[in-house]
Amino acid sequence: MPASLFILGLAMAAQALPAQAPAAQESEQPLKISVTAELVLLDVSVRDKDGLHVANLGKHNFGIYENGVLQKIAHFASDDVPVTVGLVIDTSGSMRPKYSVVVTAALSFIHASNRNDEMFVVNFGDQVRSGLPAGVPFTADIDRLRTALSMAIPAGRTALYDAILFSLNHLGEGKCKRKALMLVSDGGDNFSAHNPKDVIRMVGESRATIYTIGILDPDDLDQNPGLLRRLSQISGGESFFPEGLSAVGSICGRIAADIRTRYTIGYVPVRSGEQGAVRKIRVTASTSDGHKLAVHTRTRYFLPDLRPLVVQPDSANRKPGL
């Protein structure tokens, strides 16, 4: 797993050895390569007081704060660009009476999305499975996605944590810079090898925006709506808890629209002596006449520990590794 999917670009500079140094001295001094620039990218959703998406904002309408300090915006875009999207669907036994409705809703999400999105399907019960055929990691083919959704047979318990970690790892293999997950489940976890701390840590390291739909049963002792809310809140997505199955389809359409209308904003973080630390993020938005707008984006990320790459003299002819 990469240290952080937040790091979009690395500008690297080699510190040259003294030109006049004797060969013996050169062999004792390693070549150091240090990171000089990195970019934190945020997917940002903006809505007005009526909950409607706000378009046509410019860079000047936004403010980004990291640990309370205003940052300079280094990247800004508002285009409907392709996204790598994972549909993470609970196929445990308790989903059997609800599953056909969920499949129909997921298909409505696919139809409402950008036609060039690269998508994948993850089904999880006792085990976590990729819904697409072997050798097909992503697809924009609606028929293949329909098959990946409809061929699953709900059974077994719920390995929710394992499914999230698998999906986040798979997102990292996609070619699109923007990443999103839509997670649909009717309960908590009762079968994973991993735990919530593993999940929260990886969400903090990922660029993914996570949307969760909790189809909850009051009699289900395993349900964990708090975790679903936290996943969305940390990643900058949204969580939904429909009162009935009939609302799931419209929620999926709303999520598709949110993904397509997000702004992408980036800034270069200031590094201090604190490495591998959690950085808190706050983004503000307002209209040109000063009216504040509602913003959804991630609230924190883990700044990775990027130590200098050191190449020892005896490995000068090998491929160096971090």
**Percent strand:** 25-35%
Provide the helix percentage: 10-25%
Shape: globular
Q: Name the average pLDDT.
A: 85
What's the multimeric state?
Answer: single chain
Query: Which stretches are low in confidence, meaning pLDDT under 50 for 5 or more residues running?
Result: 1-36, 308-322
Counting helices, strands and paired strands, the structural category is alpha+beta
Whole-angstrom Rg: 22 Å
**Element string (H = helix, E = strand):** EHEEEEEEHEEHHEHEHEHEEEEE
Task: Characterise the protein shown here.
Strands 3, 4, 5, 6, 13, 14, 15 and 16 form an 8-stranded antiparallel β-sheet that branches. Strands 9-8-7-10-11-12 form a 6-stranded mixed β-sheet, with helices on both faces. Helix content is 23%, strand content 28%. Mean pLDDT is 85; it is low at 1-36 and 308-322. The two termini are 13 Å apart. It has helices at residues 23-26, 99-112, 142-150, 160-171, 196-205, 225-235, 248-260; strands at 11-14, 31-37, 40-47, 62-66, 69-71, 73-77, 84-90, 118-124, 128-130, 179-185, 209-214, 239-240, 263-267, 278-286, 292-296, 300-302, 309-311. The radius of gyration is 22 Å and the shape is globular. The protein is α+β, with helices and mostly antiparallel strands. It is built from 7 helices and 17 strands. Helix 2 (99-112) packs antiparallel against helix 3 (142-150), helix 2 (99-112) packs parallel to helix 7 (248-260) and helix 4 (160-171) packs parallel to helix 5.
